[in-house]
Write a structure and sequence with these properties.
Number of strands: 5
Number of domains: 3
Bound molecules: flavin-adenine dinucleotide
Number of helices: 17
Strand content: 5-15%
Distance between the termini: 78 Å
Strand order of the largest sheet: 3-2-1-4-5
CATH architecture of the largest domain: 3-Layer(aba) Sandwich
CATH class of the largest domain: Alpha Beta
């Protein structure tokens, strides 16, 4: 049997059920498809830091596969266009991939299932639980987080599996080197891509610095590595599995201390879990302005306001600093994301989907379910029982950056600008006047 494994958000060898299933194949072709810029969207392509992190992750995966006599073929383009050609060219008769939440991702699988003359198996390795474990039908998934958490938090989580000791050889093919991206890691948050770096960060946060033991008090820090776990980039592209992180927390609790903070890190993984399963159910409504309930929101699109928000040049210094941190490093704390999202939705009165698309472009931990789910939550069209959050920006700055150190560090204090530009260039002045 000639098998193809299409890597998506499962860029790891360990705890990868789809890859484990390849062991009895005669040959195995490992492929990753780099996204092409979307022609219909203004926010083309992916930002430099997200691109860097992805390429580093792929480079590390390729090297690990090469160490086992395997390799990784990295091509560019959509799965609908590229994979049928690959299947034909290498006479593939079985294809595997790991489930990736999202509407386009689901559409691609449906298309490939219909189009390809082979068995396509989609494995779930990105979540803590299997749907079969839930004490409810998936269609009955709770709308909001708390009832979901209460129903699932005591369920057993399968221990992560070790990487396979060997893999079938690749077919004769050309495996090119992965070109490096233009960006290098930002000194303010030098997070390298790849499973080894993800595991190092996990060890560091739990067993070296014991950051997990007071995580509940520090998790709202605005800078990375200092307060929260900063594990999201590796979780998002699958360099680390969620089960690996959960079992490391449980080991820490057995070997050191189990307290409110250690529980809280697990609690946050349950948020990720919730948004992942909601994305399965919500389908395309995850991208609708009015969300699942089809609520009507009053927004007007003001390009200048959006441009100022993206550039970190608004009249809100903390928002500016956070947006500049995002563009420079590819990461922002959860508190920062809530503040900047609330600003775009409530102060600038813009369509939340523009903000979500900008995050999608920039975040090194971009994850369709968590990103769009959280944006909908703050906009009041998702899973928030309180129908949206409006953060008081002055209060947030006073509480989370009282001395303005973070805001100064990231250049957030900007000269104020008039709301509308009223110079001659903006007026339709004609020769009649
Ligand atoms: C508007 C907005 C957009 C977001 N977009 C993304 C995104 O694209 N990708 C992403 O991974 N997270 C997203 N989040 C969730 C959260 O902000 C990040 O997961 C978190 O800041 C990552 O930092 P950390 O790893 O230090 O988190 P920690 O606080 O250490 O949490 C541990 C892990 O739990 C998960 N987690 C924590 N909070 C959430 C949450 N609110 N929702 C879902 N999972 C969570 C993450 O996997 C995280 O790595 C978004 C939040 C908001 C408000």
């Amino acid at each position: 049997m000639r098998q193809l494994h299409w890597f998506q958000n499962d860029l790891r060898l360990a705890d990868n059920p789809a890859l484990e299933s390849a062991q009895c194949a005669d040959s195995l072709l490992c492929i990753y498809l780099l996204p092409k810029p979307r022609a219909w969207c203004n926010l083309n392509g992916i930002g430099p830091q997200r691109d860097r992190f992805l390429r580093e992750s792929l480079g590390e995966l390729k090297a690990a596969l090469q160490g086992m006599g395997q390799d990784l073929m990295v091509l560019e383009g959509s799965p609908e266009l590229v994979l049928p050609n690959v299947v034909e060219r290498y006479a593939i008769d079985r294809m595997t991939t790991s489930y990736a939440p999202g509407w386009y991702e689901a559409q691609a699988i449906t298309f490939l299932e219909e189009k390809l003359p082979l068995s396509l198996e989609v494995f779930r390795g990105d979540t803590l639980f299997d749907a079969a474990q839930f004490p409810f039908e998936l269609e009955q998934l709770p709308d909001t987080f708390s009832p979901f958490r209460r129903k699932v938090e005591e369920l057993p989580i399968t221990a992560p599996h070790a990487a396979p000791e060997s893999l079938p050889p690749p077919p004769a093919a050309q495996f090119d080197a992965i070109p490096r991206g233009a960006a290098s890691p930002h000194p303010g948050l030098p997070l390298p891509g790849g499973s080894a770096a993800g595991l190092r960060r996990l060890e560091q946060f739990l067993f070296h610095t014991h950051g997990v033991a007071d995580y509940k008090q520090t998790r709202n820090d605005l800078d990375g590595l200092g307060g929260s776990s900063t594990l999201s980039p590796w979780l998002a592209n699958g360099a680390l599995s969620a089960r690996t992180v959960a079992h490391s927390i449980f080991r820490y609790e057995r070997e050191h201390i189990a307290n409110e903070s250690t529980y809280w890190l697990y609690f946050e993984l349950l948020w990720r879990e919730f948004f992942h399963w909601r994305a399965v159910i919500d389908g395309r409504s995850l991208f609708r302005h009015g969300g699942r309930p089809g609520r009507r929101l009053l927004t007007t699109f003001e390009p200048r306001r959006f441009a100022r928000w993206c550039a970190g040049d608004t009249d809100f210094p903390l928002v500016n600093a956070l947006m500049r941190q995002l563009v420079a490093t590819g990461w922002m704390s959860n508190r920062g994301r809530q503040i900047t999202a609330s600003c775009l939705i409530n102060e600038l009165e813009l369509d939340w989907r523009y903000g979500a698309a900008f995050f999608e472009q920039q975040l090194i931990d971009y994850d369709v379910a968590s990103n769009y789910g959280n944006w909908q939550y703050i906009a009041g069209v998702g899973s928030d029982p309180r129908r949206g959050r409006h953060f008081n920006l002055e209060k947030q700055a006073a509480q989370y950056d009282p001395g303005g150190v973070f805001t100064t560090k990231w250049g957030g204090f900007r000269p104020t600008q008039p709301e509308h530009v009223v110079d001659g260039a903006d007026w339709p002045i004609t020769g009649h006047l």
